[in-house]
């Protein structure tokens, strides 16, 4: 951005210095600035990303350079008029002081800073912080958000399986099989044979009574 401003200022100073000696330079400068306006306007708006704001630094620098070009123009015209035998060429010397005073007066402006009365009114003129931090949203995108209730999809097969499982009776685990009568009889017979044809309980009681009598 700074190179473009410097190039444009240089072309303006050239046209300003030589406009009285060669007026054709004004036509060339007009064509140049027209092409520059079209090309730079396209580049800034369509082709290049957004540049940072210089805060007026480039404009103030270009203004000082144009004033310097005016000093060169006044000196050139005093010399040209004096060489052509102009008798009142010295009357143009005070113009040098006027242009110099205008150039020096630019330094007296506190252009980087705002006046105190404007600084005090900034809070009243600026929007509140909530508006400044608000995110821009296009109107077409501001649709009401519909709360979607989650739906449980149940198939017919799962419903059938659940109904069958609920209707089926609860089956207890199978119990241990009971001992068959034949096995029970064989066990009793074996015990009776060992005890002399009697049950184990009776045999034990009789032998205990016999021992008591002998004693």
Automatic annotation (TrEMBL):
Regions that span the bilayer: 12-35, 66-83, 90-111
Keywords, in A-Z order: Membrane, Transmembrane, Transmembrane helix
InterPro entries listed in its UniProt record: Csc1-like (IPR045122), CSC1/OSCA1-like_7TM (IPR003864)
CSC1/OSCA1-like 7TM region domain mapped to chain residues: 2-80
Pfam families: RSN1_7TM (PF02714)
Compositionally skewed regions (Low complexity) per UniProt: 181-193
UniProt-annotated stretches for the region Disordered: 180-215
Native source species: Cladocopium goreaui
GO cellular component, one term: plasma membrane
Gene Ontology molecular function: any one: calcium-activated cation channel activity
Lineage, top ranks: Eukaryota, Sar, Alveolata, Dinophyceae, Suessiales
Name of protein: Sugar phosphate/phosphate translocator
